[in-house]
Amino acid sequence: MSFEEDFGEELEPVKSKTPASKTPSSGKKSTLYFMSTIGPGEKKEKLTVNDANRVSDIK
């Protein structure tokens, strides 16, 4: 098998993980503040979420 033969195979197209369109937000936005303990020292972090989203969408 030569080097050129390796590139002769057909590859399937890459699927995008980005949504095709943004859905308008229908819920209320909430801002959560928490202390991050990752790394050397604690720091205050901010997370803004829409309460219409499911938990699995936020992860």
Automatic annotation (TrEMBL):
<feature type="compositionally biased region" description="Low complexity">
    <location>
        <begin position="16"/>
        <end position="31"/>
    </location>
</feature>
<protein>
    <submittedName>
        <fullName>Uncharacterized protein</fullName>
    </submittedName>
</protein>
<feature type="region of interest" description="Disordered">
    <location>
        <begin position="1"/>
        <end position="33"/>
    </location>
</feature>
<feature type="compositionally biased region" description="Acidic residues">
    <location>
        <begin position="1"/>
        <end position="11"/>
    </location>
</feature>
